[in-house]
């Protein structure tokens, strides 16, 4: 089968542009860019009605400069070799930007999930995992999958169970992340990508100079935003944006798009969609033509949180948002990027902005390898210490704390609090790191993020002594 490497070529184009700002050997850069291992599998599925269907899937390990290689598994009809390679490469660069010590990988199965029963999906997932095991493309120290578009906790639990049955080893739970808490998952993983998107956008909106250039006030509060995709990432990004005082004015989903300049109540919309199977017709909102129209609607921030190539030559000229927060992987083609940039938009790139998911996956993997929940050892000790300090304050002043105040002020950090703090630290520090490079080289944030990863990965290759 001849493959048209379009998406992978887009990623490499951005890489090449950034590589010009570094001094690495050309051969080293070529090694950094290519995908080390590409696995293509086909296997039969026996459907519930007894018929047999051939299922096609991939797993790509882009880079082994650090191990394990890491990246999600996607179930979608867009999945092909090019897409999986591009997404695996993005994982390498993403992990490097946020200092998550993994190589990059990605997997995918080319299916329309809505056409299969739950037990068919389970059989597909378990068989795919079996193929990965047989070909050495999964393991806590080699390649660790996670959720992506079309997959979630349930699939990750099946993957872990299949792996552990065939490899009953001490660290088997660490073979996959994004698992349910009861199966070795971590609190905060489910919301992590969306929460990271929020932290990243909030940090960008804190930059007074940038906001002035865009003609906006600093801060998230009062800004209007549109989200494309109400999946796990889009929903959580919209939730934290709304909670911080931004106004959700437009939503795009598979069935179409809606707009309301007065604001859309996210939770009520989600309930409505659950009930009616569509976002169209929701309370006070206006239906726009088709599912892409809302991308061009009036708003301060546009958050594409679905699939790649959504902002492209056909719509980029009409996009009015001043800030593009790339929650999806590869949502903006390089042509669209240039058009938006020329118009003065601030593009917060995917290989930084959606890195919250893999960051918390890293924490989950650490938890699995250490076999202890974060906070288990220290939480009570911290609480006791804080109480002692508060008691001293009470004794030397007239201030008496109520039980409620005591509970709040003396709270020790549990797993969720530690994960959230680690995620915020990562997203905020990394933004400032790439923003410095942006200023230093007078480039956009995407190029700065690529420079950042190329420098980090390149230094590792160089220090291995493989290259001159
Ligand atoms: N699929 C997510 C991503 O594209 C998460 C990957 C992971 O946690 O390994 O970043």
Tell me the total number of β-strands: 12
What oligomeric arrangement do these chains adopt?
single chain
What is the architecture of the domain at 192-353 at the second tier of CATH? 3-Layer(aba) Sandwich
- Give the amount of beta strand, in percent: 5-15%
- Characterize the overall form: globular
Low-confidence stretches: none
Q: What is the helix/strand order?
A: HHEEEHEHEHHHEHEEHEEEHEHHHHHH
Major sheet: size, sense and barrel closure? 7 strands, mixed
The order of strands across the largest sheet is 9-8-7-6-10-11-12
- CATH fold label of the domain at 192-353: Rossmann fold
Describe it:
With 468 residues, this protein is α/β, with parallel strands linked by helices. 46% of the residues lie in helices and 15% in strands. The protein has 16 helices and twelve strands. The strands form two sheets. A seven-stranded mixed β-sheet has the order 9-8-7-6-10-11-12, with helices on both faces. The protein has a five-stranded mixed β-sheet with strand order 1-2-4-3-5. β11 (323-325), α10 and β12 form a beta-alpha-beta unit. The radius of gyration is 23 Å and the shape is globular. Glutamic acid binds next to β3 and α12.
